[in-house]
Write a structure and sequence with these properties.
20% strand; 211 residues; 10 helices; alpha/beta; 7 strands; globular; seven-stranded mixed sheet; Rossmann fold; single chain
Amino acid sequence: MASFLVVLDVDSTLIEQEAIELLADEAGVGAEVAAITARAMAGELDFAASLAERVSLLAGLDTAAVDRVAPRITLTQGARELVAGAHAAGGCVAVVSGGFHELLDPIALELGLDAHRANRLTAADGRFTGTTAGPVIDAPAKADALLEWAAHFDVPVHRTVAVGDGANDLAMMATAGLSIAFDAKPVVRAAAHVSLPDRDLSAVLSVLGLR
């Protein structure tokens, strides 16, 4: 049994980048994808529809692009401290992403996360097909993941913490016992219990009284 559970968004929260935009740059469609991402994050577009539209633009990109962009992903300041501090206090840390397992899996392993979930790109003959496999990780799926992990780690929902920055995190944040907006869009700051304006995830430890 864990004493608490922290669930974080990934793109622009755990990491500084939007992973799909890195892949889009490789495919030569960076500007188009970035524009769709911005509208989705602000809550102007349905996330699942916007994801499908963005992923379709990756059709034909070679799968080796994942290895080319991975070194360009940087952890947000304080990410390692947050994970270490939560673990030291008996908590669990998980992340749920509207991005992709292909880029998230190595990060989750490196950080020693307790759980992680993301979308998965489909590929054939060494190239992405422009679709995803399995259920889309959208706003309801993020909330479901938090509840599933809380049950798995035997953590009462009131002892769960959700950290996010975009409209796709609102359902998860509404489900958690404590919601933290991290350098977030206005719609997210307005809905959160706590708003952290600075890009330092170790500040979450201060909110939890752990430093």
